[in-house]
User: Fold this.
Amino acid sequence: VESVDAQSGVQQRSVEQHNMQMISNPKKPDLLSAIDALPVEAKGKMFAFLRKAQLLVGLTLVVVAIVNGRFEFQLLTQGHSAEGKIVDHGVKTWNSIGKNRGPRTAYTPIVEFRVGDRMYQFQDIVSGYSKWAGETSVKVLYDPKDPKFAMIKRPISNWLPWAPLLLLGLVTLVIPIKPRKKG
Assistant:
């Protein structure tokens, strides 16, 4: 239903007519079409800015990953392995906010292991909401130059969160944002 506004004299269409035209028109406006419509110089400036922003984000992710994972990476690649046992737990308590308010407690295992004729002990960096049972045996990775630097050998959590951040940062650095080709 079309009508003419009495005051402005502008022809108006009903919402139904507008919606039908949008459905039947495959060339509806979207972000990519708007970018394609920009002048070449403006597009070049925009993509140059986006590439710089992408490089900054990628570099930031790589730096954060390296800072957070250097200890784990060193032990995973150069560490020696030993048998250890959990002899105690460190306790961390804090008040939680949000949906599950209240006091929370996490336990970090204290591990003892032997290198040669010397015993070493360390508090692991990964904590949990429950204690390990008794004197549980665990595999330990330690620095052969300074065995007090050690961690429990875990197949996945030793790589988290730093390795996925590193991978994402490297992918972000390598794959450039560039204009799409028309065609």
